[in-house]
Write a structure and sequence with these properties.
Length: about 170
């Protein structure tokens, strides 16, 4: 391999390392994004089993190939009204770190948009104030076509320990 081919390959690798792919989706009329590396699949909303005496944001559980997967209403998790179910409502199955183990959790969203590459230099730090969700839920603000999209810190939003604690409080 000649030097120019090696440099070209190195530049391609550097470009790939300087950007990540994000799934964009709509929630309550606002666009959000989450890194695709934690996403296992996207399924149609349906076949849910509601659980009594749970906080509003724990919408239900689903049977995903024999595994019980909790479904979180992301709008309710952000302190907004529960999501109205429409034809386009989806459940995004996300793998969340829980200590040394992982847990699959379903996230309800109004609609899924697309997967986008966002270069690292187009991501601003999370604002200290002014966002309509908790600051620790925000990994950054991505610029897409001149507009900002909130990039979620999905491990914080879906913290298994915090959700368990809130579910226990709701059960009391």
């Amino acid at each position: 391999m000649n030097v120019s081919a090696q440099l070209k390959n190195k530049q391609v690798v550097e470009v790939q390392e300087d950007q990540q792919q994000y799934l964009t989706f709509v929630l309550g009329g606002e666009t959000y994004a989450m890194g695709i590396l934690t996403i296992k699949e996207i399924i149609e909303y349906g076949n849910i089993t509601e659980i009594p005496r749970m906080p509003d944001f724990i919408r239900s559980v689903i049977n995903l190939r024999g595994a019980v997967v909790p479904v979180i209403d992301l709008a309710a998790r952000f302190g907004k009204r529960v999501t109205n179910i429409t034809r386009r409502t989806c459940i995004v199955i996300v793998e969340v770190a829980n200590g040394e183990e992982t847990q699959d959790i379903g996230v309800m969203v109004d609609t899924v948009n697309e997967v986008l590459d966002i270069p690292d230099n187009e991501i601003e730090p999370a604002p200290a104030f002014g966002a309509n969700i908790r600051a620790d839920f925000i990994a950054g603000m991505g610029k897409i076509n001149g507009k900002f999209v909130i990039i979620l810190n999905i491990n914080q939003v879906l913290s298994v320990d915090e959700i368990s604690t809130l579910a226990d409080v709701g059960d009391a």
